Batch of 4 targets.
Target 1
Amino acid sequence: MHELSIVKDIFATLEEHYKAKVEDIQKVEITAGLLSNVQPVLIQNAFDAFITEHQMYKHMELEVVVQDILAHCTSCNRDFKVEYHRFVCSCGTPSTTIVQGNELYISKVIVRTT
Ligand SMILES: [Zn+2]
């Protein structure tokens, strides 16, 4: 399952960066571009399954932020939002130069302070 391996990667990264404090992490936010092939619901399910199996993480929350796809138009020299997989700028120029939408990363970590 693709999503479970992503969740395992997220925890591996957190464990590496936060070491002993990893259990104090309250909330993790990940940013996933629409082209990254990540289904927020499936990621959430995989996350819930993971923390159920790993009791020390059972209080952790996950939020998935979905990022629009942006492509660059060389005619207008600006970025435009790609909707319904139409990689065409409002001026009519097609573009496959993706400037946003492929990413998948941990964008925020909230650690309990008390
Ligand atoms: Zn344009």
Target 2
Amino acid sequence: MMRKSDSVGGKYVSDIQQLKDELEQLEKRNRDLTLLLESAFELKSGLTSMDHPFPINVIHSLVIALDSRDPYTSGHSSRVALYSLWIARELGIGEEECKHFYRSALMHDIGKIGVPDRVLLKTERLNDEEFQSMISHTIIGARILSNVEPLERMIQATEVAKYHHEKMDGSGYPEGLVGESIPFYARIVAVADAFDAMTTDRPYSLGISCQDGVEEIVRCKGSHFDPVVVEAFKNVMQVRNYLKGGDIDSPYIFE
Ligand SMILES: [Fe+2]
């Protein structure tokens, strides 16, 4: 027979578990908002740093339009741009070029504007036709960006949009490029993009922890991802303590 103290003890344990779950969700939310804030700061600080053929307010509007299509991936573009920027800085790329790259990374998924809702929002496994439609966002994005004048200033953004799903072993898309034939900046965004996809909650699965996400990226070093980019990414995440705590007063935030 169950004693009263057992049921009280059981309720106590389930209350504790519920509080732990809620705390975990709040920590995740805090982390996401901190990242969005930092990304917005980068966007703002880039306003006066250089001329870009795509006005920043237009980029911002496009990203908002994209994010509003799918609430579950809201903030994805901003986080990927921020991770990409951190990697670029870690690799010693000059600040002006980093700012330019940040804008390119923000627009990496812009082609998803051309993917129908029935594919973009589908939570079950995509069939072949739907998968082809989904992967066409790389080509559509490149087509959108490559038409912006002056063309030479849009080469990087176009390459990032087109090639951020390529893999080092040639198993990616849309062209199955191998190794260093994948444009360098697309190789950076590939790491940032995969990490964000793994660590973000979806309607059908919970995201893994940032530490596990980094380990998974490291596991795919050389096969999927550029080893040099992976090492830089690993360093960045170690220094940032795997984004634990969303500590806005961290010396590494707003540096
Ligand atoms: Fe993408």
Target 3
Amino acid sequence: MGFYAKYVLPRVIDLAMRNEETTRLRAAWIPLARGEVLEIGIGSGLNLPFYSSDVHRVYGVDPSLELQRMARKRAMAEPIEVEFLSQSADEQLPLSDASFDTVVMTWTLCSIPNAPKALQEIKRVLKANGRLIFLEHGRAPDPGVAAWQERITPLWKPIGGGCHLNRKIDDLIVAAGFRITELKTCYLPGPRLMTYTYQGLAETTGTDAAI
Ligand SMILES: C[S@@+](CC[C@H](N)C(=O)[O-])C[C@H]1O[C@@H](n2cnc3c(N)ncnc32)[C@H](O)[C@@H]1O
């Protein structure tokens, strides 16, 4: 991993993800988490202040040790136990089947190389009555914007830590065997290529989808 990815990008991510809009959405969705929580791509721990006292413990998966260092600092300020797993979420997680009440994934599915595999892992570790809370950016519904997302993604990926602008988040979640129970989509303020946002909740359906 080069200097940019190891040291510069984590600071850019921490700053970029701390804005008024992301904070507003975190405050709306993260308090819905309950029990044992798995956070995919915990980053610098910006969701931690929004967990309610209904959360027993958070496991945070993220391959970036630098972001994990920032998240550990934030975790110390919160009355919540946080464990960290330094790995990609599309590799097998060292966690038991059906062991989590909630999986939280915020602005992360865009960057996971094998998104369907990561969703299968999420599905495996979620309890039957558990749910996935997602807040993600992805493919816009406007054909003009979507065409530019296709063109720009190969150029943007190396700068944006592997981020794909063109993933259709709801389709990926459904294809992995989840039932989406709530979905809100909208552009947030900012460049339309990067701000079309999928917010919602999903449950497992018990059916297996091909990876
Ligand atoms: C835009 S940041 C969002 C961070 C955090 N979820 C938030 O809401 O502030 C994307 C996160 O995905 C993480 N990430 C990148 N590739 C990943 C992978 N293969 N598995 C899990 N997380 C990954 C990055 O390290 C980073 O923390």
Target 4
Amino acid sequence: MLKIVVVGGGAGGLELATKLGRTLGRKRRATVTLVDRNSSHLWKPLLHEVATGSLDEGVDALSYRAHARNHHFDFQLGSLCSIDRDKKTITLAAMEDEDGDLLMPEREISYDILVMAIGSRSNDFNTAGVREHCIFLDSLNRLTVSATR
Ligand SMILES: Cc1cc2nc3c(=O)[nH]c(=O)nc-3n(C[C@H](O)[C@H](O)[C@H](O)COP(=O)(O)OP(=O)(O)OC[C@H]3O[C@@H](n4cnc5c(N)ncnc54)[C@H](O)[C@@H]3O)c2cc1C
């Protein structure tokens, strides 16, 4: 069966994986796999509400695993670290816990069609000190890390 892999479950990738799952996945015409380095998705325009404490991401974020199950696609938690276009495989980095103990080894996923939807990075316009000191409002991880400092 055709293997479609979408890397990045943001605004674009999540929508695509959901549509492909509901069409090709449901009819078993393709396997659709979504990969993201986080286990849940939060719509970015809501990030300022997390930053100000008026929204609880634990309650309001969408669980990729649950969403995938309801929409006929697979979800793989992991961070893309390389692509082998000749072998048609991607590699997801090994995962460790906070103590550095291995949770899951590096693994490969093969594809027939690969969609890259990993978003973008905030631009600091080369302004000195911004990258080191600014809290970018572009991901939950950064907000969580900043809040615990
Ligand atoms: C604060 C804020 C407010 C915004 N407000 C609006 C708005 O009101 N209206 C509007 O239209 N747009 C808004 N935007 C812009 C909009 O959020 C983006 O245009 C949109 O999210 C881009 O979608 P994307 O799928 O390209 O990337 P993203 O939504 O950024 O998704 C990228 C995904 O890829 C994953 N990823 C990245 N690297 C890897 C990797 N190596 N391995 C595995 N997974 C990876 C990330 O975890 C993420 O889930 C806003 C953005 C921000 C930051």
